[in-house]
Design a protein that fits this description.
Length: 95
């Protein structure tokens, strides 16, 4: 399983419905969970300070799910988890 993380940067923005807007995404290949947490701390301290309206969110690039039909573990993109492209969901098999 290839591991890595995606860091999404959001900025508070009163003009949007959600109150914030997506700014940028960074991919960190080969980083462990602790290394990415250290990176987030540094970015919050130097560049994306929460008191200035920034929010950082990180998640893994891929995750393992159990195939509903075969019972085997399958690696899928994090964004596909719980959606129509997730073989662990009935929705995947009913389309």
């Amino acid at each position: 399983m290839a591991y890595g993380y995606r860091l999404n940067v959001y900025k508070r923005d009163g003009r949007t419905k959600s109150g914030e807007r997506f700014v940028k995404s960074y991919e960190y290949q080969g980083f462990s969970g602790n290394a990415i947490m250290d990176e987030v701390k540094d970015l919050k301290r130097q560049l994306y300070r929460p008191e200035d309206g920034w929010r950082l969110e990180f998640h893994p690039l891929s995750t393992m799910v159990k195939n509903l039909m075969t019972g085997q573990l399958v690696e899928i993109a994090w964004e596909d988890q719980g959606g129509a492209c997730d073989p662990s969901m009935e929705r995947y098999w009913s389309m």
